[in-house]
Amino acid sequence: MKALSPGLIALVGIGSAVTARDVPPPAVVAHKTVHVQNVTHNDGKPHRQITHIRHRTIVKTPHGTMIRTTASTNTTPPK
User: Fold this and answer.
1) Is residue 71 part of a domain?
2) Rounded CA gap, 51 and 16, in Å?
3) Sign (positive or negative) of CA dihedral 70, 76, 77, 79
4) Which of 20, 29, 41, 47 has the fewest CB atoms inside 10 Å of its own CB, making it the most exposed?
5) What superkingdom heads the lineage (predicted)?
6) Within a domain: residue 48?
7) Model-level pTM?
8) What's the total number of domains in the chain?
9) DSSP per-residue letters across 6-63
10) Does some domain include residue 59?
């Protein structure tokens, strides 16, 4: 097999010829969204209750954007 030139190795990203000297650090943006609702508990007073939380992390790199979303739902009945 013919050896690849260093320029081609750097272009396709194979081997140790690829370095991070010209690559900017990834930009990370985190968003947290909390949804609440007003409920009346058994004591007759209104309370704010969290219904669900969504946490989204956006990482922008020179190769593209990666979005990671995690969500949790609070289904606890009012007390």
Assistant:
1) yes
2) 49
3) negative
4) 20
5) Bacteria
6) yes
7) 0.45
8) 1
9) HHHHHHHT-GGG--SSSPPPPEEEEEEEEEEEEEE-TTS-EEEEEEEEEEEEEEEETT
10) yes
